[in-house]
Every structure is written in C-alpha cells, then in structure tokens.
Amino acid sequence: MAEGAAPNDVVHAPHARYGTLNLPYIATWADAPKDEPMWALNLMSYRERAEYADGRETTLTGWEADNLYSPLGPIAAIGAELVIVAIVVDQPAGTDHKWDRVAIVRYPYRNALVEMNMTPEFQEAHVHKDAGMKFTIVSATFPQPDTVDRSLVDTDTTPESQMLLQFVADADAPEVEIPGARRIATFDVEGVAIGDDRTWAEARWDLLPADVSAEAIRAATEAATTDADRYVVVLKPQLGDFLRAVANSR
User: Fold this and answer.
1) 3-state secondary structure of 45
2) Confidence (pLDDT) at 237
3) What is the model's pLDDT at position 98?
4) Rounded CA gap, 120 and 117, in Å?
5) For residues 214 and 201, what is the distance between their CA atoms, to the nearest angstrom?
6) What mean pLDDT, rounded, does the chain reach?
7) CA pseudo-torsion sign 150, 153, 157, 161
8) H or E, element range at 72
C-alpha cells in the first residue's frame, strides 16, 4: 500500500460487525513518527458460534474461527511482532463484555497496522476474524519508560504463570494491589482504533505470584473501587515473550 493511503480502506465500512472504526484517530497515523513502535492491545470477545458474512454453514465456535484468522505471515511481513496472546481465566471487573483472549502486536510504527490490513493475505484471513469476533477493543498503547521493570527479562515463568491486566479509563483510578505482584509496565493508551465511543487512559500489566488465589485477586479488585470504566482480567499467556519485549522496549 502506498504511504498515506486512506485509513478507511482498512475495512470496507466504518462499522465492522465486531466494533466501530475510529477513523479520525486512525487518520493521524499517516503523519506519526516512523521510528516509534506501537503496541496494539486487543481485547477479544468471541461469538458462541462462528457466523460467516457469506452465509456458509459451519460448526466452528467463534474461538476456533479466530484461530483460523491468525495473521502471523502478514504480521511478520511488515516487521511487526506478536508479543503476547493470553487466555482470560478470570475477569474480576467489567461486566458489559466477557473477554476471552487478550493479545498485543508490536508494530514498527502506527500506520504499519493500516498497511498490513491492506495486504491480500490479511484480507483473505480476515473473514475468519469477522466470523468469530463478537466484540473487540483495539487500542494503541505505549509503555511509560519509568514504569518498565527490565529485570523481569530474566524471570523464570512456567505454563501456569499468570498476569493481571488493568485497563482503565482514568489514569488516577486506584491500583489493584496484590501482595507479591510485580509491575511489568504501565502503558499509556493513546487512542482506540476499533471499539465503541469510550476512551481509555492506561493499561497496567502485573506478573502475579504463583500462590495467589482467585479470591485474593477479586478482593483486591473490589477494594480498588472506582466510578470510571475499567476491566480487570487475569491472564494465562499462550504465545509470545512479553517480558522480554517489554524489558527491551525504548
């Protein structure tokens, strides 16, 4: 795609079935710095049964359809990296959407996401995402350098390791404080590319202690009361090396 191509070409309509494109915000990417990586945070909620726009019959769940989407080739082709895919194992706060998975793709610059969306390989795979996704929020996030714990790059994790994500609309929202948790980093949310009419301020990532209970996490979440919108989710990573990626961030 030519540099500066129209952002409304990312999909064919500003209202995708799984969210609304924020075209005014996406349009700013064409003039954004080309040397500043964007960490695209995806919160994903799946349809119980996949629904293809062309009406084809399927027995796939929404989750399974999204697995078919998996655009690893287009991601690599534009120099991006999938740094984490994680299953949501608990959601102590935020009830309007039940999140199933969370992922971050780190793009070399903002408009690289637009360029990837225009490739034929991505467009071919996108039908599966459209079929499987009930709702998603895709936000452009950037790590706050002073919050990055670079020592975590050497942390030993196991398949049972868990992380906590606090996605908050107010940067002054109280922290969910869990004894033994370590802050991986706090990310500023610059804007939402796909979602609804809400705005968000921060994405706070913590590595949870191995012995923490679901009850303790829920109690800590309830103690951090706030009137602002927020989601608190407990995650079990599936793919990617998030700790290394964050530790090596600029």
Assistant:
1) strand
2) 96
3) 97
4) 8
5) 26
6) 92
7) positive
8) helix 72-77
